[in-house]
């Protein structure tokens, strides 16, 4: 449905935010893209949305390279759901206007009011008429996130790209919004790419997980396999620090994720890797392909 | 004597239609060397309760009850004494480190400010270097400005600042909310290590019961301004007694738990507006296991196992 082929995004000639990513997300699939701040996951998502241009490589939509002259039509198909719904909504626009904006921009024909009502009720705001004239500040955090999702749904997209859709929400609301994403996939066949640092979220809703480190996917596979038998030492470390009772030993990596302007040679994870081998400083690891199954970019694997 | 004791504390904010109760009778204590967690949704009163300790609430807030820090009532304390108590007896690590630091001053200068004001160290600069090392930052970073630091490093600076005058009590309000899991683990390790090494008491506030369960000796869960459950950290997270705690614990699934696959747990509805509380149990309109009696019965904390209490009719019956 949507994907990337050898995608690279370089800022200012030296910051390699996305440094070679192959990814395919199938129709009706939910894929979680996980990693720490600065790993390039948001840049990858923005590039898939056509908000950034790749420095090399391609964004693929339905198997064909994205045509940057027809971005507007593309963006109707591929919609973004932002984190921080309070920041994403204009405080002076009513819920109705916020949701109808996309219809107006794209000059979608038909009964605007019916389309807005339909999108609101699919996002779980029922009865929709009751929300038309409300302003963002009159809504709870969960309701605001539903308005943002309704604004994406109103254009009947095929793909939703959600950047940390629940990180600013209360614990009780979080499950509600994740349940909504699952239901939209089941009822509308939506394809969803969720960008998150939250492995519990991935376990909750994702079919597959891709773990990103310093501009590259270092492990990818079915959620249960990646999260229950992680192969890459980075994934193992990430999982070990998820707050959980009855845990095995925590692997707390020291330091911050390194700088995408200075990607280490060899395996990019080697300076922080707890099980580093001598060859890791020099070996060149290939970009993980898009074959079905569970793969990890580590010399210890395979 | 407990390090900190809230005795039947109430906080009312002034609202357009009369007082709005944000905290409604909380009794809770923190011992030296203990990490106490306070969990709950936005608006449950947890941050308000924390702010009562240093009397940081706006003038419109009316605080009732007693708050004893080392046996002294903070509510009747003179401003002069209170000013001395801030930083040196009790300190707060605020959420949002980026917004709490001065962007145009080096972190060393900011760290030294409370030390100079409270005259707690003869050589403030040496103390700053010591503090930075204590929180795992090189002493040479004292000359750095906030924008030059990462989110995790800034949070470490906030912790160093809270430690600056050697307080007995540290209150950390959502100290890891904006941080990545790896950095969160580093910061939590640091905080619990400091409590252990320095023998302080700590109050850790979060809506993430998973974070509290793995870090805290005890957890108190708040709903609509009241405590609905207290117990040992692991027990409260692992085997919640109150249905509200159960919903909070379920919201952060355990990776590997088959019951959570494709089944995110949410809690429908919103917490009640403090000015318009339902009758009976505060939680009954949202409770998944509500009974007829819950709409009218008055509930209070009752015994719910070893070292545990919960305010639920199902627990008491």
Key phrases:
heterodimer, A: alpha/beta, 7-stranded mixed beta sheet, 4-stranded antiparallel beta sheet, 21% strand, B: alpha/beta, 12 strands, 32% helix, globular
Which secondary structure elements does this structure contain, and how are they paired or packed?
The complex is a heterodimer of chains A (302) and B (317).
Chain A (H helix, E strand, L loop, with lengths): L1 E10 L3 E11 L4 E5 L6 H8 L7 E6 L2 E2 L5 H7 E4 L3 H4 L6 H11 L6 H11 L18 H13 L5 E5 L7 H18 L2 E6 L2 H7 L2 E6 L2 E7 H6 L4 H8 L54 E2 L6
Parallel strand pairs in A: 3-8, 3-9, 6-7, 7-8
Antiparallel strand pairs in A: 1-2, 1-4, 4-5, 9-10, 10-11
Helix pairs in contact in A: 4-5, 4-6, 5-6, 6-7
Chain B lengths: L3 E12 L2 E13 L4 E5 L6 H7 L9 E8 L2 E2 L5 H10 L1 E4 L3 H4 L6 H12 L5 H11 L16 H13 L5 E5 L7 H18 L2 E6 L2 H7 L2 E6 L2 E7 H6 L4 H9 L50 E2 L5 E2 L2 H4 L1
Explain what this protein looks like in three dimensions:
Chain A has 302 residues and is of the alpha/beta class. Chain A has a single domain, classed as 3-Layer(aba) Sandwich (Rossmann fold). Chain A contains ten helices and eleven strands. In chain A, α5 crosses α6. Chain A is globular. The two termini of chain A are 29 Å apart. In chain B, β11 and β12 form a beta hairpin. Chain B is globular and about 65 Å long. Chain B is built from eleven helices and twelve strands. In chain B, α4 packs across α5. By secondary structure, chain B is α/β, with parallel strands linked by helices. The longest helix of chain B is centred in the middle third of the chain and has 18 residues. The interface between A and B is large, with 42 and 45 residues.
């Amino acid at each position: 449905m949507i994907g990337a082929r050898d995608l690279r995004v370089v800022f200012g000639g030296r910051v390699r935010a996305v440094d070679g990513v192959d990814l395919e997300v199938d129709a009706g699939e939910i894929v979680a893209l996980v990693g720490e701040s600065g790993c390039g996951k948001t840049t990858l998502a923005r590039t898939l949305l056509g908000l950034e241009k790749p420095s090399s490589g391609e964004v693929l939509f339905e198997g064909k390279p994205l045509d940057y002259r027809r971005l507007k039509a593309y963006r109707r198909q591929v919609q973004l759901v932002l984190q921080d719904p309070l920041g994403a909504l204009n405080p002076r626009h009513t819920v109705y206007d916020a949701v109808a904006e996309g219809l107006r921009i794209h000059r979608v024909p038909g009964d605007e009011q019916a389309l807005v009502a339909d999108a609101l009720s699919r996002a779980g705001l029922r009865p929709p008429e009751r929300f038309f004239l409300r302003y963002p500040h009159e809504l709870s955090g969960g309701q605001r996130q539903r308005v943002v999702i309704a604004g994406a749904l109103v254009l009947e997209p095929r793909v939703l790209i959600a950047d940390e859709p629940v990180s600013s929400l209360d614990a009780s609301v979080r499950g509600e919004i994740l349940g909504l994403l699952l239901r939209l996939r089941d009822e509308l066949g939506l394809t969803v790419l969720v960008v998150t640092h939250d492995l519990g979220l991935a376990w909750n809703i994702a079919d597959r997980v891709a773990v990103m480190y310093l501009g590259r996917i270092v492990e990818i596979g079915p959620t249960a396999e990646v999260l229950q038998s992680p192969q890459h030492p980075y994934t193992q470390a990430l999982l070990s620090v998820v707050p959980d009772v009855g845990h095995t030993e925590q692997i707390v990596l020291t330091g911050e994720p390194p700088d995408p302007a200075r990607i280490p040679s060899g395996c990019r994870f080697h300076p922080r890797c707890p099980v580093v081998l001598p060859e890791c400083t020099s070996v060149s690891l290939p970009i993980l392909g898009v074959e079905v199954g569970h793969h990890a970019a580590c010399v210890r694997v395979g | 004597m407990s390090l900190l004791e809230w005795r039947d504390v109430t906080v009312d904010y002034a609202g357009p239609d009369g007082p709005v109760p944000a905290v409604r009778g909380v009794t809770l204590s923190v011992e030296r060397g203990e990490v106490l967690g306070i969990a709950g949704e936005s608006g449950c009163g947890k941050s308000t309760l924390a702010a009562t300790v240093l009397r940081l609430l706006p003038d419109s807030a009316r605080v009732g009850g007693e708050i004893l820090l080392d046996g002294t009532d903070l509510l009747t304390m003179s401003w002069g004494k209170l000013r001395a108590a801030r930083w040196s007896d009790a300190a707060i690590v605020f959420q949002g480190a980026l917004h709490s630091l001065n962007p145009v001053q080096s972190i060393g200068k900011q760290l030294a400010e409370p030390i100079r004001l409270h005259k707690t160290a003869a050589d403030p600069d040496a103390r700053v270097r010591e503090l930075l090392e204590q929180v795992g930052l090189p002493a040479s970073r004292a000359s750095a400005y906030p924008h030059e630091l990462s989110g995790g490093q800034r949070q470490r600076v906030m912790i160093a600042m809270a430690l600056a005058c050697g307080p007995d009590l540290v209150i950390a309000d959502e100290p890891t909310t904006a941080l990545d899991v790896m950095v969160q683990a580093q910061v939590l390790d640091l905080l619990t290590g400091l409590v252990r090494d320095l023998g302080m008491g700590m109050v850790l506030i979060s809506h993430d019961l998973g974070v509290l369960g793995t870090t805290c000796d005890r957890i108190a869960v708040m709903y609509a301004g009241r405590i609905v459950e207290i117990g040992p950290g692991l027990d409260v997270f692992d085997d919640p007694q109150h249905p509200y705690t159960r919903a909070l614990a379920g919201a952060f699934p355990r990776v590997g738990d088959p019951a959570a696959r494709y089944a995110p747990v949410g809690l429908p509805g919103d917490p009640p507006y403090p000015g318009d509380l339902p009758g009976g149990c505060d939680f009954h309109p949202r409770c998944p296991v509500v009974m007829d009696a819950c709409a009218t019965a008055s509930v209070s904390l009752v015994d719910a196992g070893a070292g545990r209490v919960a305010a639920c009719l199902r627990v008491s019956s």
